Amino acid sequence: MKRLFTLIRVALKVNFGLSVLYHRVFRQKKDIWIGLVAVLILISIIPTIYGYLKLVEGIYSALKPVGQEQALLTFALLAGQFLILVFGLYYVVSAFYFSKDLDMLIPLPLKPFEVMLSKFIVILVNEYLTVLPIVAPVLVYFGILGKAGLSYWVNALIIYLLLPVIPLAIVSILVVGMMRVVNLSRKKDALIIVGSLLLIAASIGLQFVFGRSGRSQLDANAMVNFFTSPDSLLKRVGAGFPPSIWATKALAGGFSGPALLNLLIFAGTSLALFYGMLVTAEKLFYRGLVGIGEISGRRKALSQAEMSRLVSSGRRPVKAIFWREWRIMNRTPIFLLNGVLTVILIPILFIVMARSGTGDNAFILKALGSAKSVYVILASACFLLICGCLNGTSSSTFSREGGQFWMSKIIPVTPREQVMAKFLHSYLIALLGVCAGSVLLILVLHLKLAVCAAAIMFGLVGAAGMTALGMIIDLARPLLEWTNPQKAIKQNLNVLFSIFADLGILAVLGFFIRVLTKAGIRGNSILVLVFAVLILLSWLSYWFLLRMAAKRYREIEV
């Protein structure tokens, strides 16, 4: 047991790198700017936190008179678990099978389940941080608004600690089984990507099917029961994932018998799946690892004439670096799943969550129909920016190269041209997100083509600035030392800083729009001014990125 605890402690230290950060900041007096950046980011997200709490308060106030306020807890818990279920897949695949420390851990006298358990604990701790901004504000504010007693806060702490266990255990069992099958084939990378896509599609499909199962037409008696039963709405919201219902009832009931029973069911299910994961790990984990790092030795031999032709013809530097960046992304399953797939998943998750509760998008459509076209355009543009830019691609551009960044320093291509090519690649991923979000606006929310076209134009301009900003953050301090590819994106502070910076920009633009409205500026004048601000911000961000390229390339040590 002592050996296992030591392994877990070391894994957590390596994951967060706090000792290294402490040494660099307080001993070597480097990276002191991180503290200032963290303070600025906290200040920038205050409007976002305030807006989220006001939204929670508004939903609670609307549901309280009809006795359905518990559904707010169900929705928050369901959103957190579903987020872990889908996006945790990337983390599990990377941590279990692509960590560089596996070469050191496998020869040690450790059992397979001990190695996997240490990695599972690291993932669990990271997922606590992932769901913190989504679930924690709802749990805390719900207790404050409802003037909850001690029993609520005790149950809330237990529920939060157990919240990621069920989805992560399910994903871990599926991934271990998938990798055992993948390891039988020579096309491992392709099968990993296909298998991951199938697992994600299955989880979203089940959520959608279960959500639709509770949408039968209500007759008069059923309608009366719906509004008189305090559990009716939470059952409809949580139909796709019953553990969220158990957790909600445990929170709402305090220390009563039914509440403790639901808490016991929730905890028991978590422990059962956790034990099943350990058993699966002991039997299949190392079998899936054997040969995972092998590459095929078959390559086409080039003749002297072909080699001369390739070398002499050459490519334009920007184009060559662009395709190099494209291959780095596509040939690493973790990078591809985290970067490209995320921009498509956000609109899909929006559709699933919108349809899982009331069964349609009537509320959203009504809100859009009653709003002025100016604000519909701006709100749609904001959604498109979220779809295109909150994926970590631009803010991990240089970090993804890892220890191979030395190649970028010695190749005969100027840093400015390399940065231009990397910008085009990251911007292309953002465009994919904007396109996916536009399809949702047109086909699901049925917005007018003119409104969508204007929103897309705003989104394209804003995405350029946010892409350049993310690259600036990563270029300022790239994470070139990582044990597994997942750390270059999901555990990269630059990605977190970039997301908060993007949200801060959106919050500032929202404040700017509010100031213009109070000043009496209306209609197209607001659109023109906001568009001008976006153009200015995008140009300044791109200009500054190119200016700092040469200096940072010289300073970065590999």
Structural write-up:
With about 550 residues, this protein is mostly helical. The protein has 2 domains: about 30-220 and about 225-290, no CATH class; about 315-558, no CATH class. About 80% of the residues lie in helices and about 0% in strands. The chain is built from 23 helices and no strands. Helix 4 packs antiparallel against helix 9.
Structure characteristics:
single chain, 558 residues, mainly alpha, 78% helix, globular
Largest sheet: none
Structural class: mainly alpha
* Rg: 25 Å
Q: Span from first to last CA?
A: 38 Å
Average pLDDT works out at 76
Query: Low-confidence runs (pLDDT<50, min 5 residues)?
Result: 213-229, 294-299, 306-314, 357-363
Oligomer: single chain
Shape: globular
DSSP summary, beta strand count: 0
Please specify the SSE layout and strand pairing:
Elements: H1 2-16, H2 18-27, H3 33-63, H4 70-97, H5 102-105, H6 112-145, H7 150-162, H8 165-182, H9 188-213, H10 220-228, H11 232-237, H12 242-253, H13 257-289, H14 304-313, H15 317-330, H16 333-356, H17 362-370, H18 373-389, H19 405-410, H20 415-444, H21 449-476, H22 493-518, H23 524-555
Helix pairs in contact: 1-6, 3-6, 3-22, 4-6, 4-8, 4-9, 4-12, 4-16, 6-7, 6-13, 7-12, 8-9, 8-13, 9-16, 12-13, 15-20, 16-18, 16-20, 18-20, 18-21, 20-21, 20-23, 21-22, 21-23
Give a brief description.
The protein has 558 residues and is mainly alpha-helical. The protein has helices spanning 2-16, 18-27, 33-63, 70-97, 102-105, 112-145, 150-162, 165-182, 188-213, 220-228, 232-237, 242-253, 257-289, 304-313, 317-330, 333-356, 362-370, 373-389, 405-410, 415-444, 449-476, 493-518, 524-555. It is built from 23 helices and no strands.
